[in-house]
Design goal:
This protein is α/β, with parallel strands linked by helices and about 200 residues long. The chain has a single domain, classed as Rossmann fold, CATH 3.40.50.10420. Helix content is about 25%, strand content about 25%. The protein contains 7 helices and 11 strands. The protein has a 5-stranded parallel sheet. The protein has a 4-stranded mixed sheet with strand order 7-4-5-8. A hairpin with a 7-residue loop joins strand 9 and strand 10.
């Protein structure tokens, strides 16, 4: 004899609507004449800052010149050629151990000119992705050749099955929940600097 639960589940299965194919959403026709300039402006629009440099050597000099880098005691760097780290992320098993990180330097896969967002996955971060949210200041290093025009283009580029975790970061943490007053750094990094290389 079937239980009440099994009967309900069977009725739900029988009443399930037929599967419908996902719509074919065309890529946005929006194209920007100067992709790096538009990306830099979009980063500024979301309260971040964008440094355009020609090489990794210039990136290193630019990042070392940041006030956040000069005052940082604990640095996590996944781009050691830009700035060496003082905290070895590989040795961190508990995300709570990242609490005192002042600066994190992380490679971004690509950037979106439309809104200044940078795509990151756990391919580099692994299970230590908490560093993106607990650091006081965040530096994302993005190759200049890895820019797309719009989020439509970005989503067409994503391979969601390849990584277990991915996100877009656009500027520092911010909220305007209370009295619609913008607060920077409320829930995460107080500053976000994108270093566009090339």
């Amino acid at each position: 004899m079937r239980s009440s639960r099994e009967k309900v589940l069977e009725r739900l299965r029988q009443a399930r609507p037929p599967a419908v194919a996902l719509p074919d959403v065309p890529t946005s026709p929006v194209r920007f004449e100067d992709l790096p300039a538009r990306f830099a402006q979009s980063v500024t629009d979301v309260a971040g800052s964008c440094l355009r440099v020609a090489s990794m050597a210039e990136a290193a000099a630019a990042v070392r010149g940041l006030p956040a880098a000069q005052s940082a005691r604990q640095i996590v760097s996944l781009v050691p050629e830009v700035l060496p780290g003082t905290v070895a992320l590989d040795s961190v098993d508990d995300p709570h151990a990242l609490e005192g990180v002042d600066l994190a330097v992380v490679p971004g896969e690509f950037g979106v000119a439309e809104n200044g967002a940078v795509w990151l996955t756990d391919a580099v971060l692994k299970h230590r992705r908490a560093v993106l949210f607990v650091t006081q200041h965040l530096v994302l290093v993005v190759p200049g050749r890895e820019l797309v025009h719009t989020l439509h283009d970005a989503y067409a580029r994503l391979r969601l099955g390849a990584a277990g975790f991915g996100l877009f970061i656009a500027g520092p943490s911010k909220t305007a929940d209370i009295e619609q007053a913008l607060v920077i750094g409320a829930h995460g990094a107080r500053s976000a600097t994108i270093v566009l290389v090339g």
